[in-house]
């Protein structure tokens, strides 16, 4: 590993895709259900990679093809070795909703004072976490590492790779129930981050208004929390959504460009860490006020007379309910809803989709479209369409009336395509 790390320091760019080879990179020949990276190793060298790491002897045709027992395990071990070789402190975060937005906000705040790197996009799994750690540079002081999971023991594994110094859990929601089995399974799985931090005497940040977090950490002393009411913790006041979240901290008003009350704790987490790491409050304020969400995450758009909340990056019952509730509070003469199926809910899918259909009906929007096989199976008087193609066909014949529009669904639904139908 020492030799491989020395090689990595000479060639500090990693590639796992021959379509994205850069000159003098290291190519890791990962395997998947439908591909074998070993078969592309020579092509990687031909395209400019300095070395390729492989794990099948029959593909070793030159000295620049480095044979290891397991390419994925080697990538993970190298990232841990590099993380420990650097002086950077690692902040890890997980949770059911809001991970990526919270990570971006933390990075915006912390980078006001420190040299930081952070997970790109949502590269937060067993491959993404190592790649994030390997992006730590010699002068990096803080690495903000997002961790995703859809089953138990996954966060535990990612913690053993990243070895975080600090950690934060955004929330425990009804996400990936197919893998976790239940909300209790979600709590247990996400709390593996707490388990690691506590076992290694590391520091924990928490939302002290979340009863589960508060209870789990009641006897742990190396912690700092935020709360809207409990004065044992750092107090941050919610000032409202107009239509963006506003809050008050130490008498200072912060006006964000984030829609939805569900983004309030995400901002609080970034403020809390800014305080802990001695970032001046005026810098915390400016970092949060200039941050704009990207990639279909609670984006506010205007198009052809529509005021659109585009939240089509992902969805689960908890985030869907929060989005509907927030949309119902927005001021507009007319409100239309386009929501799509929520994936990975296992045997709770029918029940959870029915609950969302009932909730949407109860909020009484001017118009509502439920899209996807699961929503089509619900018992509701709202408009149901089996697929996006059916939605497209319907809207081309029956154009939407202008006003406010919420678009939300799981990634696989790709509901951002609805923008082209306005």
Describe the protein's architecture and organization.
Keywords: ATP-binding, Cell cycle, Cell division, Cell shape, Cell wall biogenesis/degradation, Cytoplasm, Ligase, Nucleotide-binding, Peptidoglycan synthesis. It catalyses: D-alanyl-D-alanine + UDP-N-acetyl-alpha-D-muramoyl-L-alanyl-gamma-D-glutamyl-meso-2,6-diaminopimelate + ATP = UDP-N-acetyl-alpha-D-muramoyl-L-alanyl-gamma-D-glutamyl-meso-2,6-diaminopimeloyl-D-alanyl-D-alanine + ADP + phosphate + H(+). Residues 297-374 form the Mur ligase C-terminal domain. Involved in cell wall formation. Catalyzes the final step in the synthesis of UDP-N-acetylmuramoyl-pentapeptide, the precursor of murein. GO terms for molecular function: ATP binding; UDP-N-acetylmuramoyl-tripeptide-D-alanyl-D-alanine ligase activity; UDP-N-acetylmuramoylalanyl-D-glutamyl-2,6-diaminopimelate-D-alanyl-D-alanine ligase activity. This protein is α/β, with parallel strands linked by helices. It has three domains: 2-70, MurE/MurF, N-terminal domain (Udp-n-acetylmuramoylalanyl-d-glutamate--2,6- Diaminopimelate Ligase, Chain: A, domain 1, 3-Layer(aba) Sandwich), CATH 3.40.1390; 86-290, Mur-like, catalytic domain (UDP-N-acetylmuramoyl-L-alanine:D-glutamate ligase), CATH 3.40.1190.10; 299-421, Mur ligase, C-terminal domain (Protein-Tyrosine Phosphatase, Chain A, Alpha-Beta Complex). The chain is built from 16 helices and 22 strands. The strands form five sheets. Strands 8-9-7-10-11-12-13 form a seven-stranded parallel β-sheet, sandwiched between helices. A six-stranded mixed β-sheet has the order 17-18-22-19-20-21. The chain has a four-stranded parallel β-sheet with strand order 1-2-5-6. Helix 11 runs antiparallel to helix 12. The longest helix has 15 residues, at 71-85.
